[in-house]
Design a protein that fits this description.
356 residues, Aspartate Aminotransferase, domain 2, Aspartate Aminotransferase, domain 1, 7-stranded mixed sheet, 3-stranded antiparallel sheet
Length: 356
């Protein structure tokens, strides 16, 4: 089988995993600080706060911006349910906007129509390694006085006309195994706002400030030392891994003929966290996935069920219709594109896909 995700750890990363067990508390804490400094440098922001997961990063970011019961958060439904669960966890209501058929990103021209007196946040989702149309979305947020949060869990290292993912609004990143910067779980919040960064650090630590005084509601969302150690190793290889993924994506796009290939929009650096293709009908998609699996090519049928289809979400938003979201969810699946694929494996993927 050609694996969808790369092998988890190299020998150096395994050593990094064990090292915190041998160190003092101070040294272990410094590993977390080093990860935060490195992530802030990557994104070109002043502050980064490491937390226990990408979902926690979104949840803590919302709390840090004082989002609460009854507030509305504009976001797409074509995303991980974790995005929506984070919104619901703080008592806010998701307001869903349909997506662009080519990029699968939230459509900025539809955002304005969804803004109400209760709207507090625009939460963009940089799907599959490519950033949304951030100049237009940032302008809408600024003009309307709304908080902008970037779900960049799949977009470490991605750029939009030179702007890094996580640098336009408050960023939320994942360090889960399927992310390009990965670990045994974990997440990171990025921001240029010192007050937001301070609040994030308090929230992740049960509401305790740096002196140990309880100052607000918080949870145990602290990242573990071994998670930070692995992520720091992966972060040091990010640029090389992005280039390998980009080369793999170019090979796939140049040779696959049987399905609709993904696009890289001008002005954006796509990191190819996922290489997501489309077929024309749901039956074709399901049959394609089965045939590829039988041929030894693993796939991922991402977001086959849009968030607004889940019952706990429908209880909040009611029955809604998002035509493009629902169409794309029936058509897409992802192929392996990770940095450890061999030339032979890439050729096999192309051959099997073109048999469909």
């Amino acid at each position: 089988m050609i694996r969808f995700y790369p092998p988890t750890f190299t020998l150096e990363e395994q050593r990094a995993l064990l090292k915190p067990c041998e160190e003092t508390v101070a040294l272990r804490d410094s590993r977390i600080e080093n990860l935060e400094e490195s992530f802030a440098d990557l994104c070109g922001v002043k502050h980064a706060v490491a937390v226990s997961s990408g979902t926690a990063a979104l949840q803590v970011a919302l709390i840090a911006h004082n989002i609460m019961d009854g507030d509305e958060v504009i976001t797409p439904s074509f995303t991980s349910i974790a995005t929506i669960n984070a919104i619901l966890s703080v008592g806010a209501h998701p307001v869903f906007v349909d997506i662009n058929e080519n990029t699968y990103h939230i459509r900025p021209d539809l955002i304005k129509k969804c803004i109400s007196s209760r709207t507090r946040v625009i939460l963009t989702v940089h799907l599959f390694g490519q950033m949304c149309e951030m100049d237009v979305i940032q302008d809408i947020a600024d003009r309307q006085g709304l908080t902008l949060i970037e779900d960049a869990c799949q977009a470490s290292g991605a750029k939009y006309y030179g702007k890094m993912a996580g640098s336009v609004g408050t960023g939320a990143f994942s360090l889960s195994p399927e992310s390009i910067v990965n670990s045994i779980g974990g997440g990171v919040i990025t921001t240029n706002d010192e007050d937001v960064a301070k609040r994030c650090k308090i929230i992740r630590n049960q509401g305790l400030d740096s002196s140990g005084k309880l100052v607000m509601l918080g949870l145990d969302f602290r990242v573990k030392e071994h998670q930070a150690a692995i992520a720091s190793e992966k972060l040091g290889k990010l640029n090389d891994n992005i280039e390998r993924r980009r080369a793999n994506a170019r090979f796939l796009s140049s040779n696959i003929k049987s399905v609709i290939i993904p696009v890289e929009v001008e002005g954006r650096l796509h990191t190819w966290n996922y290489y997501t293709v489309r077929v024309t009908t749901p039956l074709d998609r399901n049959a394609a996935v089965r045939k590829l699996h039988d041929a030894g090519v693993t796939t991922d049928m991402v977001y086959w069920k849009p968030a607004h289809y889940f019952s706990h979400v429908q209880n909040i938003v009611g029955e809604i219709y998002l035509p493009v979201t629902e169409k794309i969810a029936r058509q897409v699946f992802s192929l392996p594109v990770h940095e450890n694929l061999s030339t032979e494996e890439l050729e096999r993927i192309v051959t099997e896909v073109n048999k469909l």
